[in-house]
Amino acid sequence: MEILEKEGELTDGVRYVFWTFGGTVPGSFIRTRVGDEIEFHLQNHPDNKLPHNIDLHAVTGPGGGAESSFVAPGHEKVFSFKTLNPGLYVYHCATAPVGMHIANGMYGLILVEPDGGLPLVDREYYIMQGDFYTKGANGERGLQPFDMQKAVDEKADYVVFNGNVGALTGDNAITAKVGETVRLFVGNGGPGLVSSFHVIGEIFDKVHVEGGDLINENVQTTMIPAGGAAIVEFHVNVPGTFILVDHSIFRAFNKGALGMLKVEGEENENIYTGEQYDGIYLPEGPGIQEMPTTDGVVESEIPAQNFEEQMKFGKQIYMQTCFACHQAEGQGIPNAFPPLAKSDYLNADVNRAIGIVLNGKTGEITVNGQKYNNVMTRQMLSSEESANVLTYVYNS
Ligand SMILES: [Cu+2]
Fold first, then answer.
1. DSSP states of 48-97 as a string?
2. Residue 57 annotated to the active site
3. What distance in angstroms lies between residue 51's CA and the mean position of ligand 1's atoms?
4. Is 217 marked active-site?
5. In this structure, are residues 200 and 158 in contact, taking their beta carbons and an 8 Å threshold?
6. Catalytic residue among 221, 321, 362, 377
């Protein structure tokens, strides 16, 4: 296995120097069988700046191999071990400061299959959670150095699956077909946070608790300790997008710990009908409400320098804010949220559109011939952000 220190992206526009086993976070998946005798080669690329090593939790021996594998840039170390215990194990770098090496992405999983191997399933996926600590706040663009104090305080700026925000969403989503059985090898590199792993809309038929022999059945959320793992299995019965989260839920929606499983196939209305009724219900009256927030709008961010940046930042805001109601392509939802794409109402009056974004909107309006009488809450955006998001809406 080759260690590479390389720059990559944590999320749109946020660069980070990852330290990796094999060039990816998490590192290469190692698959073995109990009783295997393994000769392990660890190479530290000559362009790297620091020495590293590896502690494999599947190894019985001092440091899990760390003591025999400490390797300087431009060198290679070799040690051998025998796999005595079946299970799913974490491996990580254990070079001081250990927390920093792990925080930069130096972890992965090694599977030791039992005698005869694990039962066959239709699909297997490798997912590992990790927390990241940057000098800048979440979303602050540019190359972000590691922040030791935040790491010590366990105040993560990013909590992600597979090394960056969006590594398992959209086009990167994992997939399955109705009727298949899915097995997830889920690990948690930490360094700091324990994961409450959950798939929205699925129930785990089986969980190999903590990656060991104990099997629990019919589980909603399984706890994965930092430096631990679990094997999760479930049958998929209905199509749709199922969201993978750390159910410490602000981590999912605000820090990145969110993935997607896209399932294709036939609907099964005996199991799930989809929406059967949609009506308007406004117990608090039709007045404009504000999103609950404790502080005012912050005007501090770096302004967009040009049209491309306006479009890029605008898209980010759209996906964080407007998307929830007006939908990904701006198509809206009939009877509830009017479309923005090709909206005659939007295009008729730019100033009115700006007013809606800044102040919200209520009362009956007609968009492309359809009547809407609903409430759009005031969006807590700065004027810069409002300008960017409208630039994006008008030009896409
Ligand atoms: Cu290291």
1. --S-B--EETT--SGGGGHHHH-B-TTEEEEEEEE--S-EEEEEE---SS
2. yes
3. 7
4. yes
5. no
6. 221
Q: Two tokens at 272?
A: 């799930």
**Tens of pLDDT along 359-375?**
888 889 999 999 998 88
Helix axis angle for 350-359 and 383-394, nearest 10°, is 130
Which three-class secondary structure state does DSSP give residue 188? strand
Conformation bin of residue 359: beta by default, left when phi > 0, alpha when psi is -120 to 50: alpha
Check: CB of residue 356 under 8 Å from CB of residue 377: no
382 C-alpha vs ligand 1 centroid, how far in Å?
41
This prediction has a pTM of 0.73
Respond yes or no: is residue 93 known to be catalytic.
Answer: yes
Q: How far apart are CA 98 and CA 131, in angstroms?
A: 14
Contacts of 50 (CB under 8 A, 6+ apart): 5, 19, 73, 95
Q: For residues 77 and 56, what is the distance between their CA atoms, to the nearest angstrom?
A: 15
Reported as a single tens digit per residue, the pLDDT across 255-312 is: 999 999 999 999 998 999 888 887 767 666 655 555 665 555 555 567 888 999 999 9
